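Lay summary. Proteins are chains of building blocks that fold into shapes, and those shapes determine what they do. In this project we predict the shape from the chain. Here is one chain we studied, written as its sequence of building blocks.
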Amino acid sequence: MLKMRKIAVVTGTRAEYGLMYWIIKRVHDDPELELQLIVTGAHLSHEFGMTVDEIETDGFPIADRVEMLLSSDSETAVATSMGLAMIGFAKSYERLKPDILLVLGDRFETFSAVASAIPFRIPVAHIHGGESTEGSMDESFRHAITKMSHLHFPATEEYAKRIIQMGENPERVFCFGAPGLESIFRLKLLSKGQLCQLLNIPIDKNIGIVTYHPSTLEDHTEKKDINEILEALKRFPDIFWLFTYPNADMGGRIIVKKIQGFIEENPTSGRLFSSLGQLKYLSLMKHATLMVGNSSSGIIEAPSFKLPVVNIGDRQKGRVRAKNVIDVEKCKMNQIIVAIKKALSVKFKGVIKDIENPYGDGNTCVKIYNIIKKIVLDEKVLKKHFWSAYD
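And here is the predicted shape, written in a compact code that computers can read:
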């Protein structure tokens, strides 16, 4: 009788879980596989919505919970959280003994999970490697994760080439697109009426989505930046601004506090949500008029909705983008106002009405699932050779 393959999946944020949902479901529903879901980071924080509850509601058993976040968003707290995470993951791997580890993205939680797997000789499959986000410390984490991983699932050919440029074997690089797009085509998204009723927001106003994460490579600019953004948003009273929480990064609490103050002063102008869940968030993107901020969802998911995006700063600099993205180089009120006006214009909406999403067509998860289920996990996978075109 063949040994059941144990696939450990690490998730630390609401966004990352949504992107991997259909892969997790396929693994969970396969009687030949054992899903070992390890939950960490913001999922276990009341401040960020305790989204572990949503995972359990989806019916997935949680194999382990790795507590790591401290009640602070300082540089010391983040570095200390990484250390706590490595201790927690070591204990988890020792108990669960997974055959392969599946991770996504570029966050410090993911880095800790992958670094901890190395002494246990656990092969790592990494989704969304090879990308570039020059304005965030995630840039360093992502490429470090790539070098510690054994199987790679980049979202575009450009990212695949970058991974190979880093010395990874082309035979271990599988370019299938972005897995998060699958939910756009598979979920029955809510009507605007249903969405507005659930979120208790006005149905007769245009909706703007705002997600702004700290620029972690800049020195404490969060307060100044969010003030500039909020002042710009005030110039568009006909739009109801729906804010979502930033990531659990350094300076995130300052952003949340400023948004809360904005809503207290302008209660009919917007609302703030710590977590919306996949169905409500994608439904929101479907019915929104535009998106403002620096979220990766504006780059990856928004093109599928033909949604105009005002992308502020350099957090997403270096990522492949469609024509729906209007880049604002500096976080300055006047530049943001100009960009929002462009995004709302009839001319711009005409330009983007036929765009294709460079991140694929939503048929990615089954391909990743087939690889992690069937690939031979032997010494050839674990013992990596620095591949070079000149060898």
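What the prediction tells us: The longest strand covers residues 33-40.
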